[in-house]
Amino acid sequence: MASTLTYEYSVRDKSGKIVSGKLDAESQAAVASKLKQMGYAPVSISQHKAGMKKELSIPGFGKKVKLKDLAIMSRQFAVMINSGLSLLRALTILTEQSENKELARVLGEVRNDVEIGTALSAGMAKHPAVFPPLMVNMCRAGEVGGFLDSVLLQIASNYEAEVKLRGKVKSAMTYPVVVFIIAILAVIGMLLFIVPVFATMFEDLGGELPAPTKVLVFLSGAMKILAPVGVVATIVFFATWPKVKQRQAVRNVLDPLKLKVPVFGSLFQKIALARFSRNLGTMMRSGVPILQSLEIVSSTTGNVVLERAIRDVQESVRTGESIAKPLENHSVFPAMVVQMMSVGEDTGALDDMLDKIAEFYDQEVEATTEALTSLIEPLMIAVLGSIIGAMIIALYMPIFSVFNLITE
Prior knowledge:
Blueprint: E1 5-12, E2 18-25, H1 28-37, E3 41-47, H2 67-82, H3 87-97, H4 101-115, H5 120-125, H6 133-145, H7 148-205, H8 211-244, H9 248-260, H10 264-285, H11 290-298, H12 304-318, H13 335-347, H14 350-396, H15 402-407
Antiparallel strand pairs: 1-2, 1-3
Helix pairs in contact: 2-3, 2-7, 3-4, 6-7, 7-8, 7-10, 7-14, 9-10, 10-11, 10-14, 11-12, 13-14
């Protein structure tokens, strides 16, 4: 059985323009035959030499397509389709100008699939790690309805709002996390390097140490054993956590706890509600069937509690009942959300109502993050100062009586 190779080609299309691309085939003759069947006039066909162009890459780095990349790509794609460019030409341009190399590679493969007659959504569905189900199904609805450009604009707006939401949360969390890490490193550094110097001096002087100093000296000795263990545990945690955090057993425990955490629980809830409302509203406006929309949205909320509630909604819709009614049984959905969705169903404008809910919770998240930032900053400074200050006082307490020890 002949092996399949990758060939680079240049062809002239029906309008006389030169188009380049790649195809997998058994031989140059097979490539030429495929291109002629597609209505192209082959100009040149050569085997793709990948060996010299192969780039070195570190596993886990450089191969991630971010939501921001998809948002930019979707908006550019929509503009080109709306301007009258063919699907193939738009995909070729996107492949060439995408700054993310992994996205460019995947777009090239999608373009090749489209060249041989595969639907855009089907080509995208082959790459679930890059194109989320929400994007694939919306594109499929746009292809069927003939409004792919407007669907792509909706995808871009959706992802841009999601990126903005994540940015607000990250900006609010960065300061306390950095201060917390600095506090831990400062305490460990003092216990490992500073306290032992004072402990040796206290032993040479003799005498009874104050209780706080004894505790500090004990912690310093214990830290010499705990520090290496802590480093190994931290490395193991960061290596294994990305692999286990999406497991259902882990999510069933952590996701409900997230919503119960003081102060931050309300923020997590608002983020999940904003994401749910925005995604469901976008998919319904794009013409995706309601059951399919609910199936996809349930996996994009980021919290298993909301996911269970949406599953109940699916069952309700299957039996011909309303969307909003089952949400009353789940406390994670405030009464305002349930009532607004109910009104949206009654008036036939559920997608618009969901957009208003998403906009409201986006504003709530922004207000909450600003309040948290203004509250956490002075608290973290006070905590850090208290910890370091207490350690310094414990170290200098024996020095107050050092002259009495020297004269004895």
